[in-house]
Specification:
By secondary structure, the chain is mainly α. 48% of the residues lie in helices and 9% in strands. Among the domains are: 159 residues, 3-Layer(aba) Sandwich (Rossmann fold), CATH 3.40.50.620; 71 residues, no CATH class; 96 residues, Orthogonal Bundle (Arc Repressor Mutant, subunit A). The strands form six sheets. The protein has a three-stranded antiparallel sheet with strand order 5-6-9. Helix 7 links the parallel strand 10 and strand 11. It binds one RNA strand through helix 4, strand 8, helix 6, strand 13 and helix 16.
RNA sequence: GGCCCCGUCGUCUAGCCUGGUCCAGGACACCACCCUUUCACGGUGGACACGCGGGUUCGAAUCCCGCCGGGGUCACCA
């Protein structure tokens, strides 16, 4: 038995300002895996102390993102996750009564610690104006040294306390001890920061809310966190937190513990810029500029065949503002509408972006866990082991194999992982997964093709899909009306009219046979085609390509059995008839 | 700019701690060929890296120093 003191408690503490970023997803994954590996507890805490930027919707979105990934939290906000079998599992809860888990609901938790510090002059109210703060910063910059706010030498503590007690709003700052801070990071090693670099940072804002620095320290202590994993952008904050932990005590005199830290590297774009939600808007904006799009009507002018429902919900004036303002973001679906019109793939940044693009959670998890970590094991062929599931991750994950250098996100490799994961799915699994995905993210294909028709040809199309979204492209020829597509002139020439119209003759013969075929399914159609090839002495190419041109307009489509089966007999025959007429006329 | 962190193929990385088995291994991407009714899939093969300069050593991707390069951070945001 492990003693309670040895139990591992990890947490993920997002701030709800939008969907979960892929980097946050990796942090959550590692924290979760570490807790699972040690039979510990993984908890979720929502850091919503910034009233202006936090939202209820974003919190819910992050919970959903985590649940979709399959990362379940033992403690934290309650969430009902729907399982594939239709049942639901409730995530979260508060068995140790360490909640609530929204920091905005914990305000009264922080104040006693603030007062405790205040009484001992380890913290103090500050009354600087924003102007004087800016002036100090500029002065420091001019002198080429780090700006670190320190309490002025003439500070009148009694007067300041009196002003605070009189109700004057003011931030409260922590009085940073003068000694350097040294701590050990599980991945980076020993880190030392001179006290010159540390400031008397704010622990409680004038609005009464604790700052992030204060709330994390208090909450991690109260919730018993033993291991803190977070992005490397927090590395510079850690000395502040450690300094606080060293002086803070509970009411009964017990000092705070110092948990173990592990700072994970940043995930960057290929050009080394930080992956940011704005990258999606940036990509779309650049393409609009390239195409000369300046107004909403310009978008409509190019919209042939594309739905613009979400885009049209955006006021034209707002769209124009968006075009000229790098800091603006378009609503998710509006942006996707726009992207399909201008013909670009938006870079996925948030977990939800990957979900909507049709990636499987297991491949996202697998790929992302390899960014900055690797198991260091070989597979049966002696190659580095790269493809694994979360059970394996849980079994192997530890800090000693976490990398120190930043990594770039390579979408192509993710795609390869996803393609592989899809290929390993059984036909039934694929169908179930696709249907569940399409219900949320591709209603159009689901409605127009329908699960039953996809089922007919699932075996033939599964291997052609790199993502679930690709089903749409693979069956797109079946989504148009029988007279709703063009015949590619070059293909008509090459496969139908050449050789004195032999392709057309084949088409006519095939139409008759197809009409008489007892069962119009993939196998029967393939058998019929094989039979015709043997009988006529023609190569398969001479048979298949004319049919493809006739039924899809071009020379590229899934294997013919599948192509014709999903169209169904009436459409197939109607399309052949139309084509013959077209080529003859 | 100050401080902190990092530096192996285009990208993710193994190897580095405990120097020789590394004229550096794997994966993705790329190129070629094969398979094939198209497009894909698949198969086989190929090209591709130790940032630079010193030092230590019989021997350095591995240890030390310097330089250069990249990233992070400098809020009453988290």
């Amino acid at each position: 038995m492990t003693s309670p003191a040895a139990a591992v408690i990890t947490r993920f503490a997002p701030s709800p300002t939008g969907h979960l970023h892929i980097g946050g997803g990796r942090t959550a994954l590692f924290s979760w895996a570490y807790a699972r590996r040690h039979g510990g507890t993984f908890l979720l805490r929502v850091e919503d102390t910034d009233q202006k930027r936090s939202s209820e919707a974003a919190s819910r979105g992050i919970l959903e993102d985590l649940a979709w990934l399959g990362i379940d939290w033992d403690e934290g906000p309650a969430f009902n996750r729907e399982n594939p079998d239709g049942s639901t599992t409730t995530l979260g809860g508060d068995p140790r009564t360490v909640g609530p888990f929204y920091q905005s609901d914990r305000r009264e938790v922080y104040d006693p610690f603030v007062y405790w510090l205040l009484e001992r002059d380890l913290a103090y109210p500050a009354f600087d104006t924003p102007e004087s703060l800016t002036a100090m910063r500029q002065q420091a910059e001019k002198e080429k040294r780090t700006f670190a706010y320190r309490r002025a030498s003439g500070y009148d503590r009694d007067a300041a306390l009196a002003r605070m007690k009189a109700g004057e709003p003011c931030p409260i700052r922590f009085k940073m001890p003068a000694e350097p801070v040294r701590f050990r990071d599980e991945v980076l090693g020993e880190i030392t920061v001179s006290s010159d670099e540390l400031d008397d940072f704010v622990i409680r804002k004038a609005d009464g809310y604790p700052t992030y620095h204060f709330a994390v320290v208090i909450d991690d202590e109260l919730m018993g966190t033993t291991h803190i994993m977070r992005g490397q952008e927090h590395l510079n904050n850690t000395p502040r937190h450690v300094a606080l932990m060293r002086v803070l005590k509970h009411a009964n005199g017990t000092p705070f513990r110092i948990p173990k830290f592990a700072h994970l590297t940043v995930i960057a774009n290929q050009d080394n810029s930080k992956m940011s939600k704005r990258d999606r808007d940036k990509a779309a904006r650049a393409k609009c500029r390239e195409l000369g799009i300046k107004t909403a009507p310009d978008v409509h002018a190019k919209a042939a065949g594309h739905t613009l429902a979400a885009f049209d919900a955006v006021a034209p004036a707002d769209f124009e503002k968006w075009l000229g303002d790098k800091t603006r973001q378009l609503e998710t679906h509006a942006l996707e509408d726009l992207a399909s019109v201008i013909g670009i793939d938006l870079p996925e940044i948030a977990v939800d972006d990957f979900r909507r693009s049709g990636y499987l959670p297991e491949s996202v998890l697998n790929y992302v866990s390899l960014l900055g970590w690797n198991p260091g094991e070989k597979d049966a062929e002696g190659k580095d082991l790269e493809r694994f599931d979360t059970a394996y991750l849980i079994e192997k994950f530890d800090f000693d194999r976490v990398g120190k250098s930043a990594s770039k996100f390579d979408r192509a490799k993710l795609v390869a992982f996803n393609q592989d994961a899809i290929a390993r799915l059984t036909d039934d699994e694929f169908l179930t997964r696709w249907a569940a995905w399409a219900r949320r993210d591709d209603r159009e294909t689901l409605d127009r093709i329908g699960i039953e028709r996809v089922k007919l040809i699932v075996g033939a199309i599964k291997g052609r899909c790199k993502t679930l979204k690709d089903v749409r492209a693979v069956v797109s020829f079946a989504m148009v009306d029988d007279d709703g597509y063009e015949f590619n002139p070059k293909d008509v020439e090459k496969h139908l009219k050449a050789d004195g119209g032999s392709g057309l003759a084949t088409l006519a013969a095939l139409a008759t046979k197809l009409e008489a075929l007892p069962a119009f399914d993939v196998q029967s159609i393939d058998a019929l085609l094989d039979g015709h090839a043997a009988e006529s002495g023609l190569g398969m190419g001479k048979i298949a390509q004319p049919l493809r041109v006739a039924t899809t307009g071009g020379s590229v489509s899934p294997p013919l059995g599948a192509t014709l089966a999903i169209l169904g007999r009436p459409s197939t025959l109607a399309r052949i008839r139309r084509c013959v007429g077209h080529a003859a006329g």
